[in-house]
Amino acid sequence: MKNPCSVFLLILPVFLTHCLCLSAADIKINASFPGGNIVLSKIEGSTVYLNPDLREGQPWFYWYFEAEVTKPGKYIFDLGKPQKIGVQGPAISIDDGKSWRWLGKANVELTTSSERFSHEFSVLNQRVRFAVAIPYLQENLDHFLKNQAGNKHLQISELAKTRSGRTVELLRIGNPGPGVETMLVTARHHACESMASYVLEGFLGEALSDSYFGVEFRKRYALFAVPMVDKDGVQNGDQGKNRNPHDHNRDYGENPIFPEIRAIQELAHLQKIRYSVDFHCPALRGDIHEAFHFLGFGLPLIKQNLNEWIQWIREERPQEIMVPINLLVDPSKANALDRRINSHFMATLEGAMLSATLEVPYTQSRPALDPEMARAYGAGLLRAWVRTVFRSPESKARTGISSTELSALRKEFLNVYKSKPKEMETLVSCYLSKETPAVVQLESANLLATLKVHQSKFAEARELAQTVIKDEHATTFQLSIAMVLQLEALCKDSSSKPRDVNDTFERAMKIPYSANDYKAKAHELVADFYRQRKMYKEATTFTKNQIPFVPIHEKGRLWNRLANDYDLMQMPAEALDARRKTLELLKAAVENPEISIFGAMMAVEYFEALYGISSTPISELEAASQKVLNHKVATKAMKERVLKLLSERK
């Protein structure tokens, strides 16, 4: 190196934050801000070698630093042995940490010996912050609380002072009293688990709102919240996980070493907490760590109540994101109980009805979880909580409908409405009365709209769907179903106008974080609307836009459909390109066929793409046909179609 790196550590008395400022000729590495964490190994040319600063902990992956360059260009940041970089690459901020995005995978290199990413600095003296995940610090919590200033439903007090003298906030939403149950939510027992804070913020925001769900929640619950348990660790930039001698989430024994944990224990006993959720993040990537899931001590009542809540989360979550998985430990297993852990401690309190740890991925391969999506997930958790019928130790239930009853109604109807339309219409119509719980009325309206579309009674279907769309009691899932039903009724009605279809499509696509199959269905309905009117240019636009939302076994079908549309528009070059795209997509899948109906579908689409190319040799077409004819799961209709087309070519 031309210039040795200078290293110094500065302790700021105000923040008690570990600060690190390291430099070489063209780049300076800095972590002297709240949450900052990095150790510089060396700088060689444009490559910077870094490691997390473990401080009091065992090997983990938390890091957060700023890089400032005096010479624009591409720089490489090497973080050493796995795992140090998540599935969306590092988080990046170009405005001193005020806003963040994921850098993405394109500039990330992962090997068995090291993990590194690169970034192109385009401006002289540009400062860019990078972090293993999107940070959530005291300033974020302060911003949330400032936005809630004046909210009469929120009280803020001090739970405890940390060992460094910082205030650990205790929030209270609602008021304890007769008929009101107490609930506790916590986050950041491990300082680095930042995405969990965004989910908790969404949960608290919905509980404080004037929505139907916020009002109902406060009627039934007094919610206590500790948004940052390890306040010192969060601000100092510690990982907080696996501290020596133990971390905050292994401190719930008889003699806690952290004053904030002792205060939580006292609060739980004083307020007779019966419900508790502790928000965490798991490991950085891979397998279950990219999935929402619950951990905890699986006592029968707690497991039953958690499963019921999960079923309502299925209805209320942002539909693009998965349903959390119940991984509570079986209490009959040896050493299953560990009362040093928050969720285990809370589960064993007298009268406990639900206690669990929710593990929130730092991000996911698909979709890329970000703060807004995480907040939306948290709001969905609160709405699902309000809908949940919790069972008490005395087996008494709240007034309301269970998720099982709602699912049974939906399943019964959808299984037979085409074969027994009169019976199903009678069944669901009786649930439209005002005496029926709102969620059941809305479900019945959607089911009846489904039947009306099947019967080509499109105006009635649209009216029924509109009642769901306008009602604040509708679940997120019910709203998405109503939107697509309204669009379907419009698209299948021969009297509909393109402008009305396009307007309805635009409204349908504005539902935030809708599922891919929902988006695909909406695009396909509109594409078919235009295709039936021989407006192929418009149809191809919607089909092209549909392709990103479908799995691979559907992509070939859509590219073949595009090819057929181009044929009808007398655009042979575009048709050929579309068929070649099908072959490119499906070649590997057909050469190593999947023994499933999806594998058979891909083999058929591959054959049809070859068939559509007039220059395909008959020998190649015959070979492709055998992939269908010999496929163990291919249907009789698939095989007959392939044989028919093959005979036509011969």
Short synopsis of the structure:
The chain folds into 4 domains: 123 residues, Sandwich (Immunoglobulin-like), CATH 2.60.40.3120; 250 residues, Zn peptidases (Aminopeptidase); 150 residues, Serine Threonine Protein Phosphatase 5, Tetratricopeptide repeat, CATH 1.25.40; 100 residues, Serine Threonine Protein Phosphatase 5, Tetratricopeptide repeat, CATH 1.25.40. Helices cover 43% and strands 16% of the residues.
Give the topology.
Layout: E1 9-11, E2 18-23, E3 27-30, E4 39-44, E5 47-51, E6 64-69, E7 73-78, E8 91-93, E9 101-102, E10 108-110, E11 115-121, E12 127-131, H1 138-147, E13 154-161, E14 167-173, E15 181-187, H2 195-208, H3 212-220, E16 221-226, H4 231-236, H5 259-270, E17 275-280, E18 293-295, H6 300-316, E19 325-326, H7 342-347, E20 354-359, H8 371-387, H9 403-416, H10 421-429, H11 438-454, H12 458-470, H13 476-492, H14 498-509, H15 516-532, H16 536-546, H17 552-568, H18 572-591, H19 597-612, H20 618-629, H21 636-649
Parallel strand pairs: 5-7, 15-16, 15-17, 17-20, 18-19
Antiparallel strand pairs: 1-2, 2-3, 3-6, 4-5, 6-12, 7-11, 8-9, 8-12, 10-11, 13-14, 14-16, 18-20
Helix pairs in contact: 2-8, 3-8, 6-8, 9-11, 10-11, 11-12, 11-13, 12-13, 13-14, 13-15, 14-15, 15-16, 16-17, 17-18, 17-19, 18-19, 19-20, 19-21, 20-21
